[in-house]
Fold each of these.
Amino acid sequence: MADLRLDRTDLALLAALRADGRLSNVELAQRVKLSPSACLRRVQRLEAEGVITGYRAEVDAAKLGLGLQAFVRVQLKGHGAADIARFAEDIRGWDEVERCFALTGDMDYLIDVRVQDLAHFSRFLLDRLLAGGQVADVNSSFVLRAVK
């Protein structure tokens, strides 16, 4: 992967797909000023090389009844391999967690949580996150609005 070279056209393709992953190959080719066949070859190469890792639908969580978003910073009590593996396994099983990132600094993880309301968040925090006894410290921030 160290030899991977992306030119201006590759970067333009990626920018267009990041903005709208549902573009047809013809539309994409028009946007980056390539023939459809050349465009398709480039996209397939970016997929094969792992630059493009997948496609997904973005959904409005509020319309699914998940109107409250919080970012939760977590510090674990233990930092051994077993502690980390157990925490990661727990996180993967919780529907409320959209994303989870391991961090450097004073907190170990940043968790992106989507829940119905404050009562649902309280249940998540008390019955899931803190119930396992792995967490030493937690700090939560609620999203007021998305800026970008």
Amino acid sequence: MANSLHVKKGDRVKVIAGKDKGLVGDIIEVLPEQGRVIVEGVNVVKKHTPDRSAQTGSKDKGGIITTEAPIDASNVQLVVKVDGKEVVTRVGYERREVTKRRPDGTEYAATRSVRIARKTGKEI
């Protein structure tokens, strides 16, 4: 599996497959080595945890905890704002010319990769 994904933490995405298809949310965490992402309010699971406060002396009360589980990154599509409306789009990459500065103060021309929205052609 590749270690880079088309989405990043903080991106707004729409789920395009699975039990939560159609839901829109922000990415909380990205797991690139597994190719998965955790989206706010999507794939919500209940986890039963025992009361460990007596053994460890901590404040872990236990009970039923509701949390988001990871979903595959291929099941989400990026959402961008166009004229006040949210539109799903694919992600493209472009090389752009930039001016970089060395520690000694001299400048040089280089290129960097930027993400662009395929529908609008604008930088994300």
Amino acid sequence: MTSESPTQHVKTDAKTDAKTDAKTDAAEAGTPPRPQILRPHAEELFAEELSALRREDERPRPPGWVLSPWATKLYLLGGTLRSGLAIRPKYIGSARLIEIAIATLATDRALLLYGVPGTAKSWVSEHLAAAISGDSKLLVQGTAGTDESAMRYGWNYARLLAEGPSAEALVPSPMMRALEGGKLARIEELTRVPSEVQDTLITLLSEKILPVPELGIEIQGRKGFNVIATANNRDRGVNELSSALLRRFNTVVLPTPATLEEELAIVEQRVGELGRSLELPAEKPALAEIRRVVTIFRELRGGKTLDGKAKVKSPSATLSPAEAISVVTNGLAMAAYYGDGEVKAADLAASLTGAIVKDPVQDRLVWLEYLQTVVKEREDWKDLYRACRDVLG
């Protein structure tokens, strides 16, 4: 039995009070509280949408797919079903890129989602796996320490020593389970994986088999098996992919949002979802505050103001939508626990500065110059200028 740690009392609205009372009543009645998952998998979080799509999906499906390519696209990009259920968009951007990604997975080529950090590569990968296989959990997280067992299989060494090589002693990897089950396997940060481990993928992707020489067998892939990998172009120098491996992938580059309004929609949607998931007792951030953060990131990223009248220096940070989401969500938490529940410039200033200033010398100078020449000159941004200068000291 676990007990909750004490939490600081904060000002909440009637809905939050009612939710707390309901939990208290359940506890007093002897009903065990429902476990709260911090981050449910996509197929769990959007189970209702996926179930509704399966019921209405009458289009042709590739072998082993849970949804058709048409329904998979609708799940990713959003829309309305005949039943009237609204499917929330998971990706806001080019529909053509999503079509290419989905079509690739219906062929014998694997999919490589490529781009700068924070362009929703992992997010798209997870939702593609949830829609196509109904399971996004077959994941290999690429790091410098990833070894071949993550791509092939491992062993239960206690049983291996006691019994020798056997099927019972074999520990299947996510890749092996995907191969056997005809599902999608996901590989995150492929360029961070050592080159010799990357090479183990070539046989898997070419022959769709996984030899197990210790047992004298091979695992043959079932229809529906494929691989989605992600890589960011700032890591090209870590372990660049060989040409032999690249030929097994169809590469789709996910760009940063093309317009301010597109980026605003992404940040607003994700902040709202995160705020609800974390149960932050604060008001939804005003669109004006989100717009200021997104505008700053786009201008610093692009090297000029949005009106094109002034050039600005760019910091070393990526300043993608992912960082903007983090800044606004942190501001939401600051407003909830140390403010009046309404996000203001002072709530955003520290996390905004932290996202931009990665190099304490060069980036600090870039940020100071931008504050002085751009932010200070905007009449309705004076509060943000003062709050950021207070943080910098």
